[in-house]
Amino acid sequence: MKKRIKMWNKWICLLGVLCLFACRTRWQDTSVQAAKEEQLQHAVRQLQAEGYHTLAGKLPLEEQLAESWRYQREKDGSGEVRYFVVSAKSKGDSFDAARVQAESLAKVQLAGLMETRIGQLVTNRLETSDGNTVMQTVASSKNLVTTRLSNVYPLLEVYRECRDGEIEVQLVMGCDRRWASEIAWAVISAEAVQSPSRGGSFSFSLTGLDQAYRNGESLRFSLIAEQDCYYHLFVFDADGVEQLYPGAYEEISLYKKGVEYFFPRNQWVAYSVEKGNYPVRYEQNILLVVATRKDIPFTGEVTVGNVLGWLRRIPEELRSEQYFSFLSE
Asked: I want to staple 105 with a disulfide (CB 3.0 to 4.6 A). Which of 16, 88, 91, 230 is the partner?
């Protein structure tokens, strides 16, 4: 009986400790939340004191600021920052002029944040460790990404009237880090991999590709080459890359020089355009067409790195490639 009493005493003590720990944890969580709320309210009051206002129809300033902070804190499964978040401000004689300039500055900052990642991609995926090559590619790609980066969205958008009569706009913008890395590489590959006509290479032409497609519409185009060849078709988009041809229902085939061939080859196959779930009207896509003199199949998982690695391993005298951009909405 005494042993049972002792055991009950131990369980009661343990239960008491757990209750105290739970109360302390709950108190700490409440304290942290209260501190965050106070910090948020202080930031809101500061912006209001500086004369900033939100646009009619936009979320209240407090909600916009809270959302921008949430994006900065959020991590992905590997513990890395999930979003690139930047802020920029600019003045202009009108709201629209100031906003366009602020957005351009934000994109430049985003490209800067991506610079290190771009350097890693160039080193790994172009299979080069030459410092000059990496630096030149990174420098040129920053400009390309700045001009073509489209899937960025404002988390905070405020404005104020300045004493000189101009309007100052302040933006906090963000984009998904994974998407930014992949679409940046797609843009880089479309420019950096291309080079002037190489000895032994041959040309081909593509017609029929539209500039923009609505979600669910299908790509239709034709190819004609000056050399007997095999075609391989890939599309880079915000989520990575997809192989269009050859596929499960369209086998690889030898295409004769000077003959116009229409794609898709199979009447029951459609190259459907599917826009990613991003809060912008248009999404950038890049169609990569590779023509080879010999049948050199692509094998393995279809990823950006694997596709471009396969392309680089094909001898220059056996291949010809071109990149074509189109938008999906």
From this structure: 88
> pLDDT of 31-65, one tens digit each?
657 667 788 888 889 888 998 998 888 888 889 88
- The span from the CA of 174 to the CA of 71, in Å, is 8
CA-wise closest residue to 71 among 82, 61, 80: 82
Instruction: Evaluate the omega torsion of the peptide bond into residue 246 and state whether it is cis, within 30 degrees of 0.
Output: yes
* pLDDT tens digits along 282-327: 677 888 899 999 999 999 899 888 888 898 899 989 999 888 878 8
Q: Answer whether 66's CB lies under 8 Å from 40's CB.
A: yes
Cα 157 off chain centre by = 21
Confidence of residue 136 (pLDDT cuts 50, 70, 90): low
Look at the block and give the residue holding tokens 């248009």: 282
Contact 296, 233 (CB under 8 A): no
User: Tokens in use for 288?
Assistant: 């990569």
Euclidean distance between CA atoms 45 and 53, whole angstroms: 11
Question: Is the separation of the CB atoms in 298 and 180 below 8 Å?
Answer: no
Cα distance between residue 96 and residue 102, in whole Å = 10
Are 208 and 222 within 8 A, CB to CB? yes
DSSP 140-155: HHHHHHHHH----EEE
Give CA–CA dist 245/235, Å, rounded: 10
Task: Compute the distance between CA of residue 110 and CA of residue 115 in angstroms, rounded to an integer.
Answer: 9
Measured in whole angstroms, the distance separating CA 57 from the mean position of its chain's CA atoms is: 28
Q: What is the residue type of 67?
A: E
Contact indicator for 222, 261 with CB cutoff of 8 Å: yes
Residue 25, SS3 per DSSP: helix
Closest CA to 302 of 248, 221, 226: 248
Q: How far is residue 328's CA from residue 216's CA, in Å, rounded to a whole number?
A: 9
